[in-house]
Specification:
This protein is α/β, with parallel strands linked by helices. The chain has two domains: about 10-130, 3-Layer(aba) Sandwich (Rossmann fold); about 140-190, Orthogonal Bundle (Arc Repressor Mutant, subunit A). Helices cover about 50% and strands about 10% of the residues. The chain has helices at about 15-25, 40-45, 65-75, 90-100, 110-130, 140-150, 155-160, 165-180, 185-190; strands at about 10, 30-35, 55, 80-85, 105. It has a five-stranded parallel beta sheet, sandwiched between helices. α3 (about 65-75) links the parallel β3 and β4 (about 80-85). The chain is elongated. Residues about 130-135 and about 195-203 have low confidence and may be disordered.
Length: about 200
Amino acid sequence: MCRNAEHNIFLVDDEPLVRETVGKVLRHLGADVTCFACAADCLEQLGREECDLLITDIKMPGIDGMELLRRVKRLIPSLPVLVITGYGDIRMAVRAMRAGAVDFIEKPLDRKSLLSLVGSVLRRDARSHSSAGGKVLTKTEREVLLYMLQGRSNKEIAVLRSRSIRTIEGHRRHIFEKLGVDNLMELVRKMSSVGDYPLAEQE
């Protein structure tokens, strides 16, 4: 991993050649690229490491790209996701966009188009973070939010993270402030709605 990289990109594709080729292309952006052969490994790593952009193929065995997209949007609503679709599969691309993908790119992948699109998404995300006045959740806050959505109490979260209950209460308060809600039920309703925090595909 390049510790001085400006961006950290996760790439998920079950084809080794695609991972190798696309990974090399993306590193030309000065990014640190972590490749995964399956969605499950990616989800596990997202719980431990911050990511600026997730790129995933749609059609994969096991957890496919659409399901990965849905799960990521539950866990980290602010994380931009770019999906790779088959050539001419507009219906799938539309479904992915409705589920929260920021954009899509078709196979066969074109190097110039890929670099242009990824660069655009990263710049757009950086601008949105800047304009949000520092209201982006930290890694710790995202982890606490995940426990909250699992229905765990402040005491349980404190034990799991080896922190005081008061510290967890502070994280909880900051999460609500940053996401513009007053309580957990309001947050769940917001995440379930179509828009910034989609939980399910809308037909």
